[in-house]
Amino acid sequence: xxxxxxxxxxxxxxxxxxxxxxxxxxxxxxxxxxxxxxxxxxxxxxxxxxxxxxxxxxxxxxxxxxxxxxxxxxxxxxxxxxxxxxxxxxxxxxxxxxxxxxxxxxxxxxxxxxxxxxxxxxxxxxxxxxxxxxxxxxxxxxxxxxxxxxxxxxxxxxxx
Length: 160
Fold this sequence. Notes:
mainly beta
């Protein structure tokens, strides 16, 4: 069974369990979570709810291409919840981090800084599970060429 099928099955189980929950609100202050991006990005986030309007999510990402390169990304993604209705909350988000890319064939590496802003919405099926989507404007600058790009993310979060 390949990785995408396993993720789809796990997502379906978590989603099904969350529909049976009664509460539909933002997780409590002090809650930790784990967030996985469902749109092919390779980072895992660990959001922490500072209060009902602000969360900080440190992230780490890793990818490798055999005999070519290895990428490691580390940073933080804050979210400021602009509206907090019962189940649907809109938010402003950002990205601050760096990426190190090592090239296997030359033993060289480059380090780039990542900076981004975005806007999105998160739907809380319960105070333990949510799905979110956001649109972002990102920039990358450092050792490699400066890059300005747009992006869209869809992610699922499980709070403890």
